[in-house]
Amino acid sequence: AINPEDVAVLQYTGGTTGVAKGAMLTHRNLVANMVQLNEHMVDSFRKNQEVYIAPLPLYHIYSFTIHCTSAVSLGNHSILIPNPRDIPAFVSTLKKYPFTLFVGLNTLFNALLRNPDFQKLDFSPLHLTSSGGMALTTETANKWKELTGSPITEGYGLTETSPVVCSNQCNAVQYGTVGRALPETECKVVDENGNDLPAGEAGELLIRGPQVMKGYWQRPEATAEVINQDGWFKSGDMAVIATDGFIKIVDRKKDMINVSGFKVYPNEVEDVLACHPDIVEAAVIGVPDSEGSEVVKAFVVSTNLELDIKAVRDFAKTKLTAYKVPHQIEFCKELPKTNVGKVLRRELRDKEIAKAKA
Predict the structure, then answer these.
(1) Counts of helices then strands in the chain (DSSP H, E)
(2) Which terminus of the chain has a smaller tally of CB atoms within 10 A, N or C?
(3) In a 3-state reduction of DSSP, which class is residue 323?
(4) Which residues have C-beta within 8 Å of that of residue 276, sequence separation ≥ 6?
């Protein structure tokens, strides 16, 4: 006999900011999130009509929920892409199917947009592109819409929330936000002391709903740190909730950079750098300075070997307040990523720490 509150899976977190932990997701969690997502996206997830492109591994909770529960429950078809890093083979597969829904994340969209054969595909059946897993840059969203005609509907979720918390809907897209909360999902932001903050103010995002995990496997102390007695889950993400309910994720709380008392969120700086025509992608971290504060350091992947530090800084100065402009810039061939393409800022920070000790 299976009880709805029994654990269905141990879903391990991405571990991008620390050690991966096993989230205990119950049968109720997974089924609830499927129903919530189907209801929230009812105008886009049509029954028995959709062909989803599934480039992310099904063991990732984002992909699992969309393809293995939501799509299956609606009688829809998913095309599995075994190796999304092999872009030519990926595009060759895309040519065979009139796909209507595309699921991915920023780094993947970027790689595809640079492929000439991808640019020649027939996108007329495509009516929804879903982005999650990491922040979507404005530049990528604009280029994708221009090429495919499909807006990217960015959403947000965590392993601990099975995973979807909120998402933009096709008929109500606000770029720069992750949309509104799913049905039966409560969201609020709080300050460092746990006090509720009004609309428009940035604070840590807390979530309550039937999709919130039971806890971390064999880690009661870690569970107590993130789920309070009232059932609110502390996401560790800084967010702003507007009066119309749209949520903007500012950045990971652990990734926030303190520049002489001023808060700098890496996502904002990365979004600006990605607008430079010669920059493919960028990752931003905080590194200690001699005065006990931090400075902004950017790791940049560029298509132009002649692009120099001054040019990048000058570009950033046109769009960012002075203290947000990268103080240090390092060019690299590629950024460290998880196996689903999420940039590992933690690995970049660890290398900086090791370099300082050497």
Answers:
(1) 11, 19
(2) N
(3) helix
(4) 312, 315
The two tokens of residue 29 are 């969690």
The Cα 300–Cα 289 span in angstroms is: 20
Q: For residue range 90-135, list pLDDT tens digits in order.
A: 999 999 999 999 999 988 999 999 999 999 999 999 999 999 887 8
Residue 248, SS3 per DSSP: strand
Question: Using CA atoms, how far apart are residues 287 and 146, in angstroms rounded to an integer?
Answer: 37
CA 135 to mean position of chain CA atoms: 4
CB contact at 8 A, 239 and 248: yes
Alpha-carbon span 136 to 140, nearest angstrom: 7
CA end-to-end span of the chain:
58
* pLDDT tens-place string over residues 237-286: 999 999 999 999 998 888 989 888 788 989 999 999 999 999 999 999 99
Q: How far apart are CA 249 and CA 177, in angstroms?
A: 7
284: enclosing H helix or E strand: strand 279-288
Helix orientation angle between 309-317 and 266-273, rounded to the nearest 10 degrees: 110
Which strand (E) or helix (H) includes residue 251?
strand 247-252
Question: Residue 272: in which H helix or E strand, if any?
Answer: helix 266-273
- The full DSSP string for 30-66 is HHHHHHHHHHHTTTTS-TTT-EEEE-S-TTSHHHIII
Q: What is the rounded distance in angstroms from the CA atom of residue 21 to the CA atom of residue 159?
A: 10
Whether the link from the prior residue into 163 is cis, omega within 30° of 0, is yes
How many residues does this entry show for the chain? 358
Asked if 221 and 228 touch (Cβ cutoff 8 Å), the reply is: no
- Partnered with residue 100 across adjacent β-strands are none
Euclidean distance between CA atoms 94 and 50, whole angstroms: 14
Q: Give the three-class secondary structure for 314.
A: helix
Determine the Cα–Cα distance for residues 252 and 148; give it in Å rounded to an integer: 30
